[in-house]
Amino acid sequence: MLVYKRTYTWTTGGLLVLPAILVFTLFFVIPLLHVLLTSLHNYSQTSGVGDRWTTQNYAKFLRDPYYLGVLWRTIRISLVTTVVTLILGYPLAMVLAATKGRTRSWLILFLLAPLLVSMVIRAYGWVILLGTQGPVANLFHVLGLRTPTMLYTEFAIDLGMVHVFLAYMVLPILGSLENVDAAIVRAAANLGAGKWYTFRRVLLPLTLPGVSAGAVMVFSLTASSFVTPSILGGPRVPVMSELAYDQVVSVMNWPYGSAIGCILIVVTMLLLLIYAGVLRGRRGRTEGTVTSW
Amino acid sequence: MVSGRRVLSMVYAVVVYLFLLAPILVILLSSLTTTNYIVFPPRGLTLRWYGELFAHHPEFISSLWLSIAVAVGTAVGCTVFGTLAALALHRYPVPGKGIWNALFASPLLIPSVVLGIALLQWYSTLGIAASSWSLIIGHFIIAFPYVVRLVMARLQEFQSSHVERAAANLGASPVQVFWKVTLPLIRSGMMAGAVFAFVTSFDDLTVALFVVSTDVQTLPVRLFNYMQYNYDPVVTAISSVMVLLSLVMMIAMERVIGIGQAFGVSKTHTTKRGTVHAH
Prior knowledge:
By secondary structure, chain A is mostly helical.
């Protein structure tokens, strides 16, 4: 016992974790702080990053309706993706939770398999499907309908995002569903609750942790994605990450690109905090009703 | 009535799965077309575009090798350092544990674009040119949280069994305890972490886009750039090669650890309560 305790010293532990801390400090923390500092400098035609301190990059973003529109589009796409993946994903999680044995293994395998395929390729598959010569357009043509523009629209981005992130919503909900005691659901039914009522008052509240974990993950991943919106939306419907990329790589305006990146981080974190707050408030209320019985 | 519900839920599952697999199937099938442009459904069947790819596009093949090398480097680095970090943070009284845990999880909260911008500026400040190493470092950062989390989960799982303590009490040295007890127990977590790190690196476009140069380009970057100006079936051919590689990864994952376990889904349907009832 004594021997065991003595061998686990903080010096050994420190040595084990030190390499990771060094890499993270050197190639994560410092570079990010560097971005923050760059965003607070002016843009210079000659050297890129000027040597004057300024908050003008942020003011430029917040004053221009075009940039604010891009921010709002990014948030809108994230909200739509979160809601649609929830609506599609919850029933799928229920199906998976009710399935056993080999079928279940196969269903989980095919849910996760697309995650291993590069996002570039999955997005390109949608480009072929939604393009003007694609099968969907042909179907409209055959039916004698006017083909709507699908590719390079916000709809295409929503579709691609739902496709990429559906599994991220299903997995935590599935986890929560499996922890629900089947006896509670049976009890509700025995006590005369209808299917919908049982779902709304019993199953949904019990799986809320899974739902919120999935929602937080899908929302923040969507808000920060770059690949899917740039391939399916393109320059006509830019989102925040494309804006930052363009400023840094094409325009070479590093200060402004950095500022856009910082705004993206702040906005997603703020929304997640608000979301966490709302969730905590609601949980407080439901607990209140239970105790007031 | 019950079976009716069952059929309905299966139909629903099939529809969702078709949606999930549709773009991938479309890529695979349209790579077989005989036309000079991409069309779905494909017209005729030919492997011509794969021949074209290997004969006239050596840049795709070299990018494929670079991507594999970077992904292997990322997997090895993340697994070694991630396991050490997880061990230290879980077992040892390291000062500032909360800070390090938060630090190692934080890349999940930072958009890849911002990390890309950060590395671009930092590398150019330090004068580091694009290489497989500069790519591996970027991918190390984005894959690290997964590896730490997966290994940590395994450590937590067997903590309550006190096997390490038993081994130590029976006279095993800390090094022996690690090699003979701890390592075999957390191996599945490490494997899952390595596969995750490989896939994360192999799939990454966003971070790499900022780090690459004209000579050093990973496959997703090469593909992304090629797609902007070309609409020929070479794109679908190289994409299909990547899909097949992913399929190999998937089978490896399923064989080694079970793909569900790697993503934190139990394969069998036994909850803790279920076991209690069975008693």
